[in-house]
Specification:
alpha+beta, homodimer, four-stranded mixed β-sheet, about 80 residues, about 40% strand
């Protein structure tokens, strides 16, 4: 099972993406975790280390996919 | 079955995304079509109509998700 992590910060663009992305990811191949930075600010360093620059972002097997643009990680760090 | 369309233009960012996105989409829920604009320039108008602004982009059930940034649609139109 591969690992998928959807990082977001509760922004409108994030929330719109969350449901659809969560539905679209093949759960038979990916173990999907959803991380909300406002609730899990200790996960910010891990996300930045893997290359997350903005939210929402989906990390599939360590590859970062920035999906649309909700907020930069600087904006995220300013509010959490 | 819902419809998923991955639009791209053969750019390096597109190619990197294509394989992983194609693997990650749940094929039991989504019928996935991959459209390469350089080979299917007649699909550009359809993509723009649904809101595609840059490639690569994944349209899930009419919702557009721009994935990272490879090229703008203006760039795409300039080369195809």
């Amino acid at each position: 099972m591969k690992k998928a992590v959807f990082y977001h910060a509760g922004c409108p663009v994030c929330v719109a993406a969350e449901d659809i992305v969560a539905q679209a990811v093949d759960r038979q191949r990916y173990d999907l975790e959803i991380v909300h930075f406002a609730k899990n600010s200790h996960r910010i360093a891990e996300a930045e280390a893997v290359g997350v620059k903005s939210v929402p972002a989906l990390v599939l097997d360590s590859q970062v996919f920035h999906i649309n643009f909700g907020a930069s990680m600087d904006d995220v760090k300013a509010i959490v």
